[in-house]
TrEMBL record, chain A:
HAMAP family: Rel_fac_2. It holds the Pfam family PCRF. This is Peptide chain release factor 2. The lineage of its organism: Eukaryota, Viridiplantae, Streptophyta, Embryophyta, Tracheophyta. It comes from Morella rubra (Chinese bayberry). It comes from the Eukaryota.
TrEMBL record, chain B:
The keyword Methyltransferase applies. Signal peptide: none annotated. Keywords: Methyltransferase, S-adenosyl-L-methionine, Transferase. The lineage of its organism: Eukaryota, Viridiplantae, Streptophyta, Embryophyta, Tracheophyta. This is Release factor glutamine methyltransferase. Coiled coil: none annotated. It holds the Pfam family MTS. One of its GO terms (molecular function) is nucleic acid binding. GO terms for biological process: methylation. Residues 190-271 form the Methyltransferase small domain.
Length: 324, 327
């Protein structure tokens, strides 16, 4: 049995190596062709080999992505949650900026974004928010963002124009596509809370507020939704978030999968800083895990995250391989 | 008291408490299409989100309107909340977002547009001046948001509402859940005839009609002609004209022919004591129909009437579910 498995794996790896070697050979051939075409001033041949090279580049990008996003859950859609760190309005504003960054990132990539839950700060920003990002491989990419994001800037909320450091924590939860893998939720284990201001309700009050909070009593895990326009739909959205949270919890318990995949917001220690965004005195965004850096924070905050994500994924991949 | 839910919603089982003659065989007329009592003169208003996008405005103008509206909403702070439990600015800002969703044909695109799109025209379901008016009415007159956009999202439905028709409340959604529960345990109730008394926008009748499916039937009554025309519009939108029949009249009056034949009765009758009407939240007291709110001196007038009448209207083991909120 075991020998058979090993032998199959061996075969598959040999196949892959063969593919890589063939790819390499093809690449060299095309380069030689291109050089030759240049020397002989053959425009037609030059453009043909250039085309072939471009095709190979596309091909290799695809292959690279396939290798990076081969995790079991990578192809799932996901929730992204951002929570402001300590520090009041300053951090809440930063949390809102981080959330906006992910919304823009998702838009750039053609993913669908839905705000599920948003708790605004008193003066500005958000205390916490959850968005749903629908699209292929959104979890695979977004998981690279899990951790604490740090901002250094001159505070717009400080009349003395002092430099402030703020933190925001990011969690990413996969949405399992396969119904059968969901954790069974017992209706009787749920406490459903409907938010109502004051004691009155029914005909006495007309409000568009129809927030719902669902608590899973055995685990204490909860989910809130207030962005839909009916209570019924808020409940459905909150249930979906709760389901994903419980699924994630269960996965963590059962498989003890990689910590990065399964950490939920509350588990992220404020020490697990992954990226630093400095707007003052110099301008730079630097990933502390990969040392990948960009000197234009505006573009990053505008959603240009792919460089960070890909460099993290490939570093993670290499590390993963090295561990074996 | 913030989170708990204090409405008593009482499923009564009348079969044990009332002596009844043997149940007449189950045959009531087959109800199809709308009945003649539907007033033809009242044409219901079309909700904003269903209007054709005949207007347009440059992105910059729309953004200007939004910023103005946001400022107006922010200036409210907690004034309304402190005054009469009305909306605070964060709730108003959320409503503003929904207003944009209903008014702008391609709203998700608008939310992404940057300064470079300032001169692009956006197609709208209401003119920009009308949008200014709408938001002014919302803030200055406290006109309910649902009347402004002409609809209320209720359960999984989007119901048309307008002045003269009570805006269905989120709590009332639970009555449909209760009906779903009793119906799932009793096939007889599922195939029986139900009545929604004082249907308003038709919310309960539609919610229940969708649960009963093709076997059941619902009669929805209301005294108000405007309500009936709005309910008819909503029924049509959900294709329930053959399941739900509308009848005009007070409580049981239009139901003489089905006495003793009803499997279930649901109602959200007026239950606010008369003397409390003047102190209500402005959105309710100033704009919603008194007919749907005022429950007489005790607040219980209509409820007592319904409880008394329900006994003779229901067949044995029938259900009566109503809403009441005692402060």
């Amino acid at each position: 049995m075991h020998a058979g498995k090993i032998s199959r794996e061996h075969g598959s790896l040999m196949g892959k190596m063969k593919e890589v070697r063939a790819f390499e050979r093809e690449l060299l051939e095309h380069i030689d062709m291109f050089k030759l075409a240049r020397e002989e001033d053959d425009a037609e041949m030059e453009s043909e080999s250039l085309k072939a090279l471009l095709r190979m580049r596309r091909n290799s990008k695809e292959k690279e992505l396939q290798a990076l996003l081969s995790g079991e859950l990578d192809s799932c859609s996901c929730y992204i949650e951002v929570q402001a760190g300590a520090g009041g309005t300053e951090s809440m504003d930063w949390a809102a900026m981080v959330m906006q960054m992910y919304k823009l990132w998702a838009q750039r990539n053609g993913y669908k974004v839905t705000v599920v839950d948003e708790m605004p700060g008193e003066i500005a920003g958000i205390k916490r928010a959850t968005i749903k990002v629908d699209g292929e491989y959104t979890f695979g990419y977004a998981k690279a963002e899990v951790g604490v994001h740090r901002l250094v800037r001159i505070s717009p909320f400080d009349s003395n124009k002092r430099r402030h450091t703020s933190f925001a924590a990011v969690a990413v939860i996969p949405i399992l596509g396969d119904e059968s893998s969901h954790v069974q939720i017992n209706e009787t284990d749920l406490r459903i809370e409907r938010f109502r201001a004051g004691g009155a309700g029914g005909q006495h009050v007309n409000t568009t507020e129809s927030a719902i909070r669902i608590v899973h009593i055995p685990t204490g895990v909860s989910a809130t939704c207030q962005n839909e326009r009916s209570q019924h739909q808020n409940k459905a959205s909150a249930m979906a978030v709760l389901q994903s949270r419980l699924d994630q919890l269960e996965m963590a318990r059962q498989a003890q999968m990689n910590a990065q995949h399964t950490q939920s917001l509350t588990d992220i220690t404020w020490g697990s800083q992954i990226r630093s965004y400095v707007l003052h005195p110099y301008r730079m965004v630097k990933d502390l895990r990969t040392n990948y850096e960009v000197s234009d924070p505006d573009s990053v905050l505008g959603g240009d995250l792919d460089g960070f994500i890909l460099s993290y994924l490939s570093a993670f991949l290499d590390k993963d391989e090295g561990d074996r | 008291m913030k989170l708990s839910f204090t409405r008593s919603c009482c499923p009564f089982n009348f079969s044990t408490s009332f002596k009844r003659s043997l149940c007449a065989n189950l045959h009531w007329p087959v109800f199809s299409s709308l009945v003649s009592s539907r007033p033809t003169s009242l044409k219901p208003q079309t909700p904003l989100f269903l209007r054709p996008a005949m207007h347009s405005a440059p992105v910059s103008d729309l953004r200007k309107w939004r910023d103005w509206a946001k400022n107006l909403a922010s200036s409210v702070g907690t004034t309304f909340l402190d005054l009469d439990n009305g909306p605070d600015s964060s709730l108003l800002c959320r409503e503003l977002k929904w207003l944009m969703e209903d008014a702008i044909e391609d709203h998700s695109l608008f939310f992404q547009m940057g300064i470079e799109h300032d001169h692009t025209n956006v197609r709208l379901r209401a003119g920009i001046e009308e949008l200014y008016n709408m938001w002014k009415q919302r803030i200055e007159e406290r006109r309910p948001f649902q009347y402004i956009v002409g609809c209320e999202h209720w359960r999984d439905l989007v119901l048309s509402v307008q002045e003269g028709v009570l805006i269905p409340r989120p709590e009332t959604e639970l009555i449909v859940d209760l009906v779903a529960d009793v119906v799932s345990e009793n096939e007889g109730l599922k195939e029986g005839l139900w009545a929604d008394l004082g249907t308003g926008s038709g919310a309960l009748a539609i919610g229940i009609g969708r649960i009963l499916g093709s076997h059941g039937a619902v009669i929805a009554t209301d005294l108000s002609p405007i309500s009936l025309s709005v309910a008819a519009f909503n029924l049509q939108r959900y294709g329930l004209q053959d399941t739900v029949e509308l009848r005009q009249g007070s409580w049981f009056k239009p139901l003489k022919d089905v006495e003793g034949k009803l499997a279930g009765i649901v109602s959200n009758p007026p239950y606010i004591p008369m003397e409390n009407i003047s102190g209500l939240q402005a959105e309710v007291g100033r704009h919603e129909p008194r007919l749907a709110l005022d429950g007489g001196p005790s607040g219980m007038d209509d409820l007592f009437h319904l409880c008394n009448g329900a006994a003779s209207m229901l067949k044995p083991s029938g259900f009566f579910i109503f809403e009441v909120w005692i402060l």
